[in-house]
Automatic annotation (TrEMBL):
SUPFAM superfamilies to which the protein is assigned, alphabetical: Homeodomain-like, Tetracyclin repressor-like, C-terminal domain
Species lineage: Bacteria, Bacillati, Actinomycetota, Actinomycetes, Kitasatosporales
Listed InterPro entries: Homeodomain-like_sf, HTH-type_TetR-like_transc_reg, HTH_TetR, Tet_transcr_reg_TetR-rel_C_sf, TetR_C
Extent of Low complexity compositional bias: 36-57
Natural source organism: Kitasatospora purpeofusca
Pfam families: TetR_C_11, TetR_N
Protein name listed in UniProt: TetR/AcrR family transcriptional regulator
PANTHER family tied to this protein: HTH-TYPE TRANSCRIPTIONAL REGULATOR RUTR, TETR-FAMILY TRANSCRIPTIONAL REGULATOR
UniProt keyword annotations, A-Z: DNA-binding, Transcription, Transcription regulation
Keyword Iron on entry: no
DNA-binding region as annotated in the record: 99-118
Amino acid sequence: MTATVINGQQPPPDKDHAAIAAQPRPATGSRSGASRVAGDRAIGGRAAGAARAAEAGRSADKGDAGSAGGSGRRSEAARLAVLNAADDLLVEQGFEGLTIEGIAAAAGVAKQTIYRWWKSKVDILFDNLVLDAATGLAWPAETPADPADLRAYIHRFADFLGAAPAGKVLQALLGHAQLDARTAELLHGGFLDALRARDIAHTRACLGATTDEDSTDEDAIDEAAVLLDALLAPLYHRALVLRRPLDPAFVDALLDQHLPG
């Protein structure tokens, strides 16, 4: 596929999205995770978050000639401003209403700055998803080994998908992936497949599945995969199809059906 030339510039090549989660979001006057965005909305909505993002972007574009390493800090401030602005605008305007022009204006940066790092709004949202999922979809234990760990993770997944700004990003990308092959490939190859493999492995550990003479590795993985699908599929259905909240009572009822007390 031939890359589209925008504003006389060739967009950057596809990035190694597996490495994105390793990039931290330090506090730079903008949010450093989904909790900061939630706080923004609780104390004044998008205006507070947008103001911080715009200020970060303006600082990035103005420069910081008097300090060593200022260029790197300005670049990081601009990157964070763009990511935060995209999150906020998606929640406010939806996927179709989200534009590079709108993100640039809200972040206080030039469009050229955005196209230096991302090809499209899909790529910006994807980076947001990977970064926020690194903490938002973390398991409660590094080495889960009990059904209680699985219950806690399913509750966390429900909160992420149904309430967190990053969950809105995931919902938007899932919807767009039904119509756009590149988005589908990016979302599955760069995020969902790895997430599923990790969650199956942890679910398997929570079930106490082991490999021995009576159980093959494939059998154990299948058992965990079936259980994980049975727990996650209703969450996706309720959020994406029914458009209803993923409240804790619903999640508990779902877990009680499939997990031992």
